[in-house]
Design brief:
globular, Thrombin, subunit H, about 0% helix, mainly beta
Length: about 120
């Protein structure tokens, strides 16, 4: 789980989550991306209210953000809500930072197959 952050008024603010799919590539949702913003990815974060120490902050060049060509911002229900971001440098993999283990391309998982999701939301409301 990465924290996608955008720059505003001289500091970076969390906007969305994402997944490290290779040492230098992140997958996130297209609705999280605005071409007018400057982004960084934070990896190894546990509590966004404090810096624990192992976090990695890696900038993303705007020309290295690829939103699905069929994404329609005015029609989220139409699908294709995906974007890829190439990091300026590869993440340093560690116990805290790992590449997601995805099934091989073309794999169709059976109904009821267990999957793990992560996010930055509240555990209780």
């Amino acid at each position: 789980q990465i924290s996608l952050q955008y720059e505003r008024d001289g500091s970076f603010r969390h906007t969305c989550g994402g997944t490290l799919i290779a040492a230098n590539w992140v997958m996130t949702a297209a609705h999280c991306i605005s071409k007018s913003r400057t982004y960084q990815v934070v990896l190894g974060e546990y509590d966004m209210s404090t810096r624990e120490g192992p976090e990695q902050r890696i900038p993303v060049n705007s020309e290295d953000i690829f939103v699905h060509p069929k994404w329609l911002s005015f029609c989220a229900a139409c699908g294709n809500d995906i974007a890829l971001m190439k990091l300026q440098r590869p993440a340093a993999l560690s116990a805290e930072v790992q590449v997601a283990r995805l099934p091989p391309a073309g794999t169709v998982l059976p109904n009821g197959h267990p999957c793990v999701l992560s996010g930055w939301g509240l555990l209780t409301s």
